[in-house]
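WARN no homologs supplied; continuing
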Amino acid sequence: MQVGSVTTPFGRRPMTLAMLAAQVATKDVRDDACVDKWKLYRALCEARGKLGITDRALAVLNALLSFYPKQELSQEQGLIVFPSNAQLSLRANGMPEATLRRHLAVLVSAGLLIRKDSANGKRYARRDGEGRLDEAFGFSLAPLVARAEEIEFKAAEVIAERLQLQRLREQLTICRRDVVKLIETALDEGAPGNWDAIHQDYRAVMASLPRNSGVQQVTETLGRMEELRSNIVIRLEKLANVRKTSGNAYQSERHLQNSKPDSISELEPSSGHELGAKPEEEPRREPEPLKPFPLGMVLRACPDISAYGPGGAISSWRDMMSAAVVVRSMLGVSPSAYQEACEVMGPENAATAMACILEKGGQINSAGGYLRDLTRKASRGEFSLGPMLMALLRTAGLEVRRAS
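OK structure emitted
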């Protein structure tokens, strides 16, 4: 391939080693090499970050490619385009000429174009007597042909990284969901451990992940989140095994008691009852008070109640219960409804319930009726404050992230 001597730019534009290297690289292009210009342009759009070019520079390159008459770039057809700045500006959506020149310089510096300037810096072409192109001055597209494989390879790398990042983000989303639901389960089941601190660890892991994070950052965050999930699972498995063992021992003891052949209760009725009489019903057991949640966790989930504490702050459960009484009166909850909640749930959890009701605000029409409903469910063992607190914590965390 004959590319002629190395050309230097017109006027005050300096010659650089990068420009020289781009011109020398075109010597290795085969004479029969050809590239689909629009397919290569799409690859350039994918790989623009790795090539150090902007979307505006690509818009200028798109306009330049539109002046090339063929679909495929090839040496046989010539690789010089020579539009004026005015023509180029029109095809670049009316880009100002000063901006146009700046982005042309970016493309030249990136080694995607070569300036082939005439003696006076004008862009034009000479044709022979038969109308064939003899010599042209303008921008050479030869670097695009010379670097086609490199550009396509970089584009493939970008696509692969994007897919990998998408998969990693999906895995992180699933892992986050697992951690949150496992913490809720632990709170519902009364699992031993500082679950408030574990929830803080979860939030710290997510807070360390930047908004525009790459593969490496998401991979590191996923590893930390998987470790946290694994630790929680181990704790819950131990709790399940302990309860399973306790249940089996209780069932074995009952089996041994009921299988005694000389049991008097199986041979004759007890004194004072006729044969076949129904056994007395066992007395109804009162529900055990619920274990209170950590105060710090309650205040993070329900920050509004702090304003009603002594001096506008809450530093102990005593302060929390005092604030709950103020909130109860403010929301129109009757003393009897609150007293019943304290008896069933325990005073700390009743205060926590009032804090949750205050935090929900306009979502609850009747605070008193809502508290009585929670109390009835708690008396039947059908209610736990854990899911309500976790939902409020998630909402608080979402609002913080949006604000940031």
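DSSP finds 16 helices and six strands in the chain.
OK
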